[in-house]
Design goal:
globular
């Protein structure tokens, strides 16, 4: 029953490359059809309505958060004049990494991806989009539970709010520093190849303009709703904030952002299929992880295990799966006992989920939305496998190996 999930991942990876027009017309049928196979199995064969309800609630919460942030950020227009240089791009990405801990990786990515594209409109290419996904949509959110979905799930499980910042800041600093250095080198080469007319704009004065700042109120409502634990009330607040933003934002602001609902609709459909089909894979992980990990697994096992599966299964449910496996190995589900006995293992799970979420388009929710917005604005983005082969392996993987050697090998 894991086969529908494998087929869906294969379709997402190969469809836009091998048959782009066919995929655009039929991706909804593929995703929902494969999801229906898994749902039918759980209803008719397993009669496991409890798992369906739990997964359905996670999906609704995920879509409510991602969708509301997409709508509200679409009502904020950051105007940029002039061509950005590699150094200014590094500063922008660093600011985005900091903001990700306050607005979440989804909020920061949706707020900043459009001005990021406009800043580099004369030479924007694949590396601008991928490094934005690496830094703003993933690694940047490693310092707070608000920053990234798996860390928020850990907070709901009982991990103290400031535990993440206290223990993850060395990885955050090293990861952001290394990725920004890599980006600067790549962007410097790209800038040197640009026409002279583009490079001469390096000294041009840039004028920043912010329109739709009233939407910051709706953004605050969404972030406040994250901490509401009552089922459906949290999602209702998010949807209400999105509706308030959409109907109060001037049409000129939406037009300037080229805002429409196609990117979020694509995410809603594809992740409906992903959430449905990945249930058997997560069930298998929960049932077999303890046996596979051994009696006394070190932090490296959790770092690579959580990480590799996070890149394929979405990092939030994978985080919970390995936290559950750790509880089984330790013989306790009390989070305070785990923090005392298995401190480095929980740290490995946290860092692995966040950092490996950047490895593929489906590793973390904002990744696919950034790609959808970039595609909408006619920016060249790598394919599913191109993302992995051209960027994840040569740039992100060395950072992950270094982290394993520095922090989690022993």
């Amino acid at each position: 029953m894991i086969l529908p999930f494998v087929l869906l991942l294969g379709a997402i990876a190969s469809g836009p490359v091998l048959a782009p027009k066919w995929w655009l017309r039929h991706y909804a049928k593929v995703a929902l059809g494969l999801g229906a196979v898994t749902l039918g199995y759980y209803v008719l064969v397993l009669r496991d309505l409890l798992s369906l309800g739990h997964t359905g609630h996670e999906y609704v919460s995920f879509i409510a958060l991602v969708g509301s942030l997409y709508v509200v950020s679409g009502g904020i227009h950051i105007g940029v004049k002039g061509q950005s240089t590699p150094f200014k791009n590094v500063i922008f990405l660093f600011i985005g990494a900091v903001i990700a801990n306050l607005l979440g990786t989804t909020g920061a990515a949706m707020l900043l991806i459009r001005p990021w594209i406009r800043m580099n409109k004369y030479r924007v290419t694949a590396h601008h989009i991928v490094f934005f996904i690496f830094i703003v949509a993933n690694v940047g959110g490693c310092l707070t539970p608000i920053g990234d979905p798996p860390l928020f799930l850990g907070y709901l499980q009982g991990v103290p709010f400031w535990w993440v910042a206290e223990h993850c800041w060395p990885m955050w600093s090293a990861g952001i520093g290394l990725l920004l250095a890599m980006f600067y080198v790549v962007d410097k080469i790209n800038f040197a190849r640009a026409p002279l007319a583009v490079r001469d704009q390096e000294t041009a004065e840039e004028t920043w303009r912010f329109d739709g700042l009233a939407n910051l109120f709706f953004l605050a409502v969404i972030l406040g709703a994250v901490f509401v634990k009552t089922i459906l009330v949290r999602e209702a607040l998010m949807i209400a904030a999105a509706a308030g933003s959409y109907f109060t934002t001037k049409k000129a602001v939406h037009a300037a952002n080229q805002f429409d609902f196609h990117p979020i609709l694509e995410v809603v459909i594809l992740f409906a299929g992903i959430f449905a089909t990945m249930m058997p894979a997560l069930d298998w992980l929960n049932q077999n992880a303890s046996r596979l990990l051994g009696a006394h697994p070190g932090p490296g096992v959790f770092f690579w295990g959580t990480g590799v599966l996070s890149s394929a299964l979405d990092n939030a449910p994978t985080y919970l799966g390995f936290l559950s496996a750790l509880s089984g190995v330790a013989g306790t589900s009390d989070i305070q006992e785990l923090l005392g006995q298995q401190h480095r293992q929980i740290l490995a799970i946290s860092v692995g989920a966040v950092f490996f979420g950047a490895a593929t388009y489906i590793g973390n929710g904002p990744n696919f939305m950034v790609k959808a917005i970039a595609d909408q604005q006619k920016v060249a983005t790598p394919s599913f496998f191109g993302f992995i082969l051209k960027f994840t392996l040569p740039f992100l993987l060395p950072v992950l190996v270094l982290f394993w050697l520095m922090f989690f090998r022993r």
